[in-house]
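During the reporting period the student researcher (J.K.) took over the structure-prediction task from the postdoctoral fellow and processed the backlog of single-chain submissions. One of the processed entries is reproduced below for the supervisory committee.
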Amino acid sequence: MVTDKIIMKVSVIVSVFNSEKTVSDAIDSILSQSYSNIECIVIDAESTDRTRSIIQDYGDKIDVFVTEPDNGIYDGLNKGILLATGDIIAFLHSDDVYADKAVVSDVVSLFGNDIQGVYGDLVYVDRVNTGKVFRYWRSGIFSTSLLNKGWMPPHPTLFLRSGIYQQYGIFDTSFKIAGDYDFMLRILKDDTTIKYLPKLLYKMRVGGESNRSIKNILYKTKEDLRAMRKNGIDKPFLALFYKNISKLIQLVKH
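J.K. obtained the following structure tokens:
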């Protein structure tokens, strides 16, 4: 007898711009998953390098491909959400890869009737050698009390039922770097039922938008505080302190 867990469709959205060196790694990571019912959606912000031709070479292996100008990464992700037809929605950035071929299968296996999302662990890796790890983000079990301590799951590891986006809306595009944090605070402060999978799910190449420069780090700090205030975090500066300290602890432990 076929169960609901087997037939659930997972939409994986890739938002990309000028990533000719890494986009094939990301797409191959999706296509190589052992789970069979995956919808691959690629949203390109009208790249000017070879990115578009690389994507087009995959042909019908990619279910949805859109290439047009956008208003930043969260605009691209929102386009993907609106086009997704899956029961579950996930994101894979064009610089990154899943940790192994069983990631989607392992995640889907935890989606019981009461589970709205599943998340796991993430590592930051070298841009060339993805086997070289710089930082291990071990998420841990969620509770709403942790939000006031700056806790968040690694957003790229978070698989959510599509109904969450219908209930809470999509990303706020007024955020340029911390839109994912704002979104997660929005849904998690209501004690949304999410489950921790204690497994490495995601490899993120270093040098992403939020930590590319001192200017970006300062801008993200400003946006983090705005997201905290917007979503009712009691002591945002204290929460921000804990949030940044947790990153240092991950580096030291690794």
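The committee noted the following: Residues 9-253 form a domain with the Spore Coat Polysaccharide Biosynthesis Protein SpsA; Chain A fold (CATH 3.90.550.10).
J.K. will present the remaining backlog at the next meeting.
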